[in-house]
Design goal:
Helices cover 39% and strands 20% of the residues.
């Protein structure tokens, strides 16, 4: 037995280093070429691609089509695995790689039908845009063919090769990202269950609206008890699937523009930071495109041609998700006598039916039956009831890609407005700045006009779920050269069409800009960068005031609590990474909120509410301020004792989480850490799971929370000791339209997904320090920043 053990140890000692060397070999071979000559036979003329010190590509072509073709190749060379997983996520093909663990997700994606929607949108593209999209796909496919024997290590680990990239893959990705930004039907499900559990009064208080209100009140007609069982089943679709995180409505973004009257050099300024999940690699990719027809640079989406936020020669543009309610969960009554029929307000109609084969690795393909009614795809059904997704994404007037192409070419406010008037993607607030000194903003996108409230599950056969159409573009909030000299996306005034955005970040940005105005200080990009990283806690003054009032009257606190209170008293209200007071504040706010909610909702529903309702901190503010009797937990006699016992519990949680007895040594960043999620980390395969550890990016401690401008959230968790961060500003842009050499951008990690690339995590340090990377826009600046050059030729 001892000899066998020794033999095994010897074998492991030899095999493990050999595997490590093999992994290093394959990873090195996969690194993209950054100096030399590459042949792209589909080019009409040679293209130069210059790279700066952070591997940002500057594509210089003699024809716009060649620029997109080269963009496809270059992006794929750095992000091919990410692109392949993203398209599989959108079209429901994850199970073909990851096995049955991803089957539930694939079924949902097939049911919603992103691939079908992509095919329909391709038909709507004009011929010139079809040609540009095809050129991008040709570039991606040229990389797949060129790198067939040296693909990224993830393909080796999973043992497959990517298929050719198709035009509909890009369009399906854009449609999926629209769904991700729009996703609100699961909130309808939650609000319905909360309403059923606690009644109208408390539910309306939690969600800040009359849930049954509207021109046509929500009514329900149970059919054989199906409705209650179906609503209970809907939560099964909320479970995170295996490979990518579920969309979370807490995600948002920041964007604002400043007029020449306030800027330090008499030019317009724009700041933009997109918020999303912290994943590895980053969600965005930085790129510059130049040809006689176009010159645009900024953030791009891997798998999609063009730039989605940045600047061209004439304007700067960016957008934030508005979080309008663009999805409804609708119940349909199915006929028990006649299969394939469902009831409408005017009679019986036929259900649309189709089937799709879902390939499953190491198993048989699954045949998925897909049904749809006039209100959209059927997500769930049992007996005589079905739950459908009614979504504006099914009613698009124009493909989002068409708007991207046109925005990249826009040269003035008129062009900008014309493009947005036809844009029918997710509802967004778009900001604008130009070289002539003009700024503006406009909300655009597909927003339904309802006959009912849309807040809870609606009945399709009563007409309560019907929409009267889509909101008119001119009726959406907009402004051109506003008198205050600046514009902030998602201003609280927008709440009439965006009922669940948290306004705290926009209020803080507006307050800071007003402060500059009052002081007479001019705003420059350094001030804009600092504002992007602002970590001022919105509820800090209120929390400090209340705790000091009640706890100083009490004698039932220990030394740890005394030290914590003293630390909080001296705190400046900024959630800095090295701050102990920040940890004290965050623990107290979350403990108080949980205690209030769990007394009414229970722990599971409380978890869902904190995860799915971005405005929960406004509820906390209201409860602390107004102290409503109906929300005081039964075990507490007064709010004074409630605050005292909550503080005690919060300090106990910090003590256990930090494992220290001196609260002053407990910094916020030791508890509040970004956990970057690599794609492979969620696979159930033991081999893949072990290999995924190679791709892990070490957690990093950060400040802020979801309410600060630097919106590094605290992820909702059933564990009171867990303060991890899973979403925040994954891309930042700063633009000065008066100076082409003042254009800055940064990602959380870096440009590359390759394991041993020097550009995989090289931006993280600067991102943490709010030190953005200079993007060369003028020829002189590019000459200074160029580090590498590749010539693409058709010979």
């Amino acid at each position: 037995m001892q000899k066998i053990t020794v033999t095994i140890l010897v074998i492991l000692a030899l095999v493990i280093p050999a595997l490590a060397v093999l992994a290093w070999y394959y990873a090195q071979r996969a690194l993209p070429v950054m100096d030399g000559v590459i042949t792209l036979s589909d080019l009409s003329r040679p293209v130069e691609v210059k790279f700066d010190e952070q591997a940002v590509p500057y594509i210089q072509a003699k024809a716009e089509r060649d620029a997109y073709l080269t963009q496809g190749f270059v992006t794929a060379s750095e992000r091919m695995f990410q692109m392949d997983v993203l398209r599989r996520t959108a079209i429901g093909e994850l199970s073909e790689v990851f096995g049955s663990d991803s089957l539930s997700h694939d079924k949902l994606m097939r049911t919603i039908g992103f691939s079908r929607l992509g095919r329909e949108e391709y038909k709507q593209l004009p011929a010139d845009m079809k040609a540009d999209l095809q050129a991008y796909c040709q570039g991606v496919n040229a990389y797949i063919e060129d790198a067939a024997s040296r693909l990224p290590l993830e393909f080796i680990v999973l043992g497959y090769q990517p298929r050719k990239w198709e035009t509909t893959d890009t369009l399906a990705i854009l449609k999926y990202l629209q769904y991700e930004a729009d996703e609100s039907w699961q909130l309808d499900d939650l609000r319905q269950r909360v309403l059923d559990k606690v009644g109208d009064k408390l539910a309306n208080y939690l969600f800040e609206q009359n849930l049954k209100g509207g021109p046509q009140a929500q009514t329900f007609m149970p059919v054989s008890g199906d409705r209650a069982r179906l609503i209970a089943q809907a939560s099964s679709l909320l479970q995170p699937h295996a490979v990518l995180p579920n969309p979370l409505p807490i995600w948002g973004s920041n964007a604002w523009v400043v007029s020449p009257a306030l800027s330090d050099n008499k030019g317009c300024l724009m700041a933009h930071d997109a918020h999303s999940a912290f994943v590895s690699p980053d969600r965005y990719y930085l790129c510059s495109l130049s040809s006689p027809e176009i010159h645009v640079a900024g953030a791009t989406i891997p798998g999609v041609p063009g730039v989605v936020a940045g600047r061209n020669d004439n304007i700067a543009f960016g957008s934030t998700v508005l979080r309008a309610d663009t999805q409804d969960l609708v119940l349909e009554q199915l006929s028990p006598q006649f299969p394939g029929k469902y009831r409408t307000a005017t009679g019986w109609a036929n259900v649309t039916e189709l089937t799709e084969d879902v390939p499953v690795r190491f198993g048989k393909a699954v045949v998925e039956k897909i049904l749809a009614t006039q209100h959209g795809s059927v997500l769930l059904q049992n007996e005589n009831t079905a739950a459908c997704l009614n979504w504006t994404g099914y009613k698009s007037k124009e493909p989002v890609l068409k708007s991207i192409f046109k925005l990249d070419h826009a040269s003035n406010w008129q062009d900008f407005s014309t493009v947005l008037s036809a844009y029918s993607g997710s509802a967004r607030t778009w900001v604008y700045a130009d070289r002539q000194g003009n700024i503006g903003y406009h909300v655009a996108g597909a927003i339904p006009v309802r006959t009912g409230s849309g807040a809870i599950v609606a009945t399709g056969w009563t007409g309560a779920a019907d929409w009267a159409g889509l909101m008119k573009f001119d009726d959406m909030p907009h402004g051109y050269n506003p008198t205050q000299g600046y514009a902030v996306a998602d201003d609280p005034d927008f709440e009439k069409i965006s009922f669940y955005n948290n306004p705290m970040r926009a209020l803080r940005i507006g307050s800071a800009l007003d402060g500059f105005k009052k002081s007479g200080q001019r705003v420059g990009l350094p001030e804009m960068a600092l504002l992007q990283g602002d970590q001022t806690a919105s509820l800090a003054p209120l929390v400090k005031k209340e705790l000091e009032q009640v706890i100083t009257k009490s004698q039932i606190i220990d030394d740890f609590q005394v030290s914590a209170l003293d630390t909080l008293r001296r705190w400046d209200g900024v959630l800095k990474p090295d701050s102990a007071a920040s940890a004290i504040y965050e623990s107290f706010v979350r403990t108080l909120t949980r205690r209030v909610l769990e007394a009414k909702l229970g722990s599971k529903m409380t978890q869902e509410y904190l995860q799915r309702w971005p405005r929960w901190s406004l509820l906390t503010q209201k409860i602390i301020t107004t102290k409503p009797k109906e929300w005081l937990p039964l075990e507490e006699r007064t709010y004074e004792t409630f605050f005292i016992t909550t503080f005690a519990q919060a300090m106990k949680d910090i003590r256990l989480s930090s494992k220290i007895d001196d609260v002053t040594k407990c910094s916020w960043q030791t508890l509040h850490q970004i956990q970057f999620q690599p794609v492979l980390s969620s696979s159930d395969s033991a081999l893949v799971g072990a290999a995924s550890k190679l791709f892990n990016v070490s957690p990093v401690g950060v400040g802020g929370d979801q309410d600060t401008v630097n919106a590094c959230n605290v992820a909702a968790s059933v564990d009171p000791f867990n303060f991890n961060c899973d979403s925040g500003p994954v891309e930042r842009l700063l633009v000065d339209m008066a100076d082409a050499d003042k254009f800055y951008a940064s990602l959380t990690l870096g440009q590359s997904e390759h394991l041993f690339s020097p550009f995989r995590t090289d931006q993280l340090r600067n991102w943490l320090r709010l030190e953005p990377h200079s993007i060369a826009f003028s020829p002189d600046q590019l000459e200074k920043q160029q580090q590498h050059k590749v010539i693409f030729t058709n010979r």
